[in-house]
Amino acid sequence: MKRLIYTGLLLATLLAALFAAGCSDSNTNESSTQQPRAAEPVRLTYANFPPAFTVPCVQMERWKEEVQTRTRGAVQVETFPGGTLLKAKNMLRGVMEGQADIGCVAMSYQPGVFPLSTAVEMPVGFTSGKASSQTLWALFEKYRPAELEQVKVLTMFATPPSNIMSRVPVQTLEQVQGLELRGNGASGRFLDALGAVTVSMPMPEVPDALQKNMIQGLFTSLEVLQDMKFAEFCPYATIMDGPVYIFAVVMNQDRWNALPQEAKDVLDVLAPEQAAWTGQYWDSHTAEAVEWARKEHGLQVFTLSDQDKTHALEQSAALVQDWKERAVKAGLPAEAVLADVLAWKQEFDQ
Ligand code: 3IO
């Protein structure tokens, strides 16, 4: 018995010494003016569905670095790109059930679930991810919708406008007729309205569908020409400033509640900054990716005529009508929400 106690004491002393060494080690780089922090950092898991080198995952790594720096290590984030922890379709549920602490939700993949946020998906002619992302965040802040009240929203962002990437040249609306194109959410319904044969699937399934010739192209922001290597299959792009795709980064509510107040403050300050950063990054990276695809794969870029663009908007009017009906059913002031979206689009596009 005595020996057991001695061994126990010895182990405890050893562990304490090791722990102290570890702490002083990690503290050597910090300035003496900083507050002492809790010895044990909070560790959070963050699930994401597309491959690591795509924009949703690049923004995840940037958020992680900002959080770790701004909390001086008190919050540590472990990221899981590529659907290794949760996939697109079970992201929201997985976070609510605690399989991951944080998850990146592609709201555009779940029609009907987000009646407020999807206002930003309406074909109002966003020309940048900067404006679409900041509009999405402003909308969330103003309305604090029921659709997201079971989780803590850490940030939101949206793509630059959807454009066509295709195996065949598409220079007019006429050429969209009957073409099998992949698009989800409002982008999918927009394609339907133009007479395309729309196929919906999450981004990670698109490479296989292109490879197997199941689709003739896709309709989303153009940086995937490079990041998902779609330029290998799609030598043509058609600029038409279609709808955007929308995302929310959400955290398990209980895990959020358990965070120290200082950490909560850091994350809340970061939220709108991250939305703006991601939108801007998406814009500049998309421009680079198109240039890359021109040089490396001879990508040809067409722009739809103004007449065809107007025509496309007219054809997709029913989409806006459907959204309004859904919004009203959800108890939202649909007209006021759309007016807000248009005003913010102006403001943030400056
Ligand atoms: C997207 C989703 C995952 C990775 C890269 C991406 N680029 C644009 C999107 C938007 C989207 O959700 C989609 O499926 O097109």
Which structural class best describes the helix and strand composition? alpha/beta
Series of secondary-structure elements, N-terminal to C-terminal: HEHEHEHEEEHEHEHEEHHEHHH
Distance between the termini: 76 Å
Task: Trace the largest sheet across and list its strands.
Answer: 7-6-8-5-9-11
Number of strands: 11
Largest sheet: 6 strands, mixed
- Mean of all residue-level pLDDT scores: 91
pLDDT below 50 for ≥5 consecutive residues: which ranges? 1-32
Number of helices: 12
Beta percentage is 15-25%
Attached small molecules: 3-(1H-indol-3-yl)-2-oxopropanoic acid
Share of residues in helices: 40-55%
Radius of gyration: 23 Å
Shape: globular
Structure description:
With 350 residues, the protein is of the alpha/beta class. The chain has twelve helices and eleven strands. Helix 2 (55-70) links the parallel strand 1 and strand 2 (75-80). The structure holds 3-(1H-indol-3-yl)-2-oxopropanoic acid. 3-(1H-indol-3-yl)-2-oxopropanoic acid (3IO) is lined by residues 50, 54-56, 106, 108, 159, 184, 203, 220-221, 224, 245.
Offer a concise description of the structure.
It is built from 12 helices and 11 strands. A 6-stranded mixed beta sheet has the order 7-6-8-5-9-11, with helices on one face.
List the helices and strands and how they pair.
Blueprint: H1 2-27, E1 42-47, H2 55-70, E2 75-80, H3 91-96, E3 102-106, H4 129-143, E4 151-158, E5 163-166, E6 180-182, H5 185-193, E7 197-199, H6 206-211, E8 217-220, H7 224-227, E9 236-239, E10 246-252, H8 253-257, H9 261-297, E11 300-303, H10 306-315, H11 317-329, H12 334-348
Parallel strand pairs: 1-2, 1-3, 6-7, 6-8, 9-11
Antiparallel strand pairs: 3-10, 4-10, 5-8, 5-9
Helix pairs in contact: 2-9, 4-9, 4-12
Bound molecules: 3-(1H-indol-3-yl)-2-oxopropanoic acid.
